[in-house]
Specification:
Blueprint: E1 2-3, H1 5-18, H2 23-38, H3 49-57, E2 68-72, E3 76-80, H4 86-104, E4 106-114, H5 120-128, E5 132-138, E6 159-163, E7 171-175, H6 182-191, E8 200-201, E9 207-208, H7 211-216, E10 218-219, H8 225-240, E11 262-270, H9 277-292, H10 308-320, E12 322-323, H11 326-337
Parallel strand pairs: 3-4
Antiparallel strand pairs: 1-12, 2-3, 4-11, 5-6, 5-11, 6-7, 8-9, 8-10
């Protein structure tokens, strides 16, 4: 069945309020989750209500979410996410970075002690739409081994960049340090379908197409040792630097193994502090046009910018509604009716 964006947001927010979340925070988290669904990134969308529900029932998430400021100055800030909703913590962190960057040009805000923040592109785009370059990073439970190892040490540790264009959709890139996000492995395990060879290794370090064995083993990093290095750097910036957990200390959000201790890094860079916005607009427009219009490999119909396919899906969802499966509807109904 199809469901309109506002209807799904209303249901999602109502569920979070039933868990005890404040109305404003529930609306923020619902907006971010539904946005992910609209862009076809279901693993970061309203699906996350299920682990939130389990954590809520298991007393392993603190709702209502309470964000506190540990320290700050004119262009930096350290927030404590209160072990609450990660979407709320990341939203406040990037918003803080944007407001500080309006005055100082560049600002960084980090978060300690939070949870899964969903789609990082959302926060980077917050900055891009404010005429700034946005950077977002977060660490996660160990899923990648150091290159050449067999024991998980770092999370998939995604990172995102948002670039303003000033006259068209911002450019946004959002990716994990692994070949594939772990959510896709979990989705394959739920559906009992094989995963492509090259995604993961089993517990013995042998390539596998079995998602259950992959979840017991490790995911492969993008670009081999380069991806392993990226995961380590993101872990340091988002986890260690923020004063949150890092490395194998971070707990998974999808099992009741205790507080996750996830950390977040956000940065906003005001373009006007470095270059005239009019000139930047002209240059970025020419640059992206050249990117798309280069010679293509036979059989390739179009070269896509990072985030372009997701943006197209978002527009289609806004016009025609979002696909909601019977299983998803049943899950939403159960949580909405829960006392």
């Amino acid at each position: 069945m199809k469901m309109q964006r506002d209807e799904l947001k209303k249901i999602t927010s109502a569920i979070l309020v039933k868990f005890g979340e404040a109305n404003q925070n529930a609306d923020i988290a619902a907006d971010i989750m539904v946005w992910a669904d609209m862009r076809g990134v279901a693993t970061h969308g309203t699906y996350l209500l299920e682990p939130i529900y389990k954590r809520f029932k298991g007393n392993q998430i603190q709702i209502p979410t309470r964000i506190t400021t540990i320290k700050e100055n004119s262009n930096t800030g350290v927030l404590d996410g209160g072990a609450g909703l990660g979407q709320v913590a990341a939203y406040h962190a990037m918003n803080t970075s944007i407001e500080k960057a309006r005055q100082s040009g560049v600002a960084v805000t980090v978060v300690r002690n939070t949870n899964n923040i969903g789609p990082l592109a959302f926060y980077s785009l917050m900055a891009a739409r404010a005429g700034m370059i946005g950077v977002t990073m977060t660490n996660a439970a160990a899923a990648i081994a150091p290159w050449g190892g067999t024991e998980a040490f770092m999370g998939t540790n995604p990172f995102s960049f948002g670039i303003p264009t000033f006259d068209q959709e911002p450019l946004v890139a959002d990716m994990s340090s692994s070949v594939v996000a772990r959510g896709k492995i979990r989705a394959a395990a739920r559906k009992k379908t094989a995963i492509p060879l090259g995604w993961a290794l089993d517990a013995n370090g042998t390539p596998t197409t079995d998602p259950d064995q992959a979840l017991k083993g490790t995911l492969l990093p993008i670009g081999g040792p380069k991806g392993s290095a990226l995961a380590l750097i993101v872990d340091i910036l988002a986890g260690l630097l923020s004063g949150s957990k890092f490395g194998p200390e971070v707990k998974t959000f999808h099992e009741l193994a205790g507080p996750t201790g996830t950390g977040v890094f956000t940065m906003a860079i005001k373009v006007a502090e470095f270059m005239d916005e009019g000139l930047f607009k002209q240059l970025i427009s020419q640059h992206l046009a050249a990117f798309k219009t280069g010679k293509r490999i036979d059989g390739v119909g179009e070269i896509f910018l990072p985030g372009e396919i997701e943006a197209k899906k978002e527009r289609e969802s806004l016009a025609n509604g979002l696909e909601v499966t019977p299983e998803q509807l049943e899950s939403l109904t159960k949580m909405l009716e829960q006392n």
